[in-house]
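REVIEWER CHECKLIST
Item 1: Sequence provided? yes
Item 2: Single chain? yes
Item 3: Sequence as submitted:
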Amino acid sequence: MTNHWIEVDGEVIDAIKNSAEPFVDNPNRVLRRLFDLPPIEDDRTALMPSSVPRTPRGALLPLTEFDVPILLAISEGAGSAPRSTVMIAVEMALEGRLTDLDRTTMHSGGMRWRARVDQARNELVKRGLLESSLPGVWTITPAGIEYLDRRLKSKVAAAERRAA
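Item 4: Structure as written out by the authors:
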């Protein structure tokens, strides 16, 4: 039997998850059951999505290191900036700090560090430092401005201590 990859939207994935028996089913088993197809004896479809190896600890720039460059890029854009502008600013700010693995292309075709910028942005939204407003436009919140101000002051103080 030949396996094929398909792309489905989040709503379909959620429906499959809701129909799955935890710790037993994978998407293929759920779909076979929903379409009244007999189970297959050697169902290796579960291995495909989970066969992607995890990135070793410390091989990527920590996600929190993206916070200040993201917030700074947005604050310099009068509090809002398009995603593309933030990406350019973050790449420039972290130029010498991104690891070789950060600069690799993922299976999806995108650069790993760019996906991590998006992930860091989502964390900043959860923490109330950015808000979700217009699609593709990132906006800093008053809490984000305060956080950025504190982080920049602490960096200046640390640099002054090192210089003394």
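Item 5: Key structural point noted by reviewer: The domain at 63-163 is CATH 1.10.10.10 (Arc Repressor Mutant, subunit A).
Item 6: Recommendation: ____
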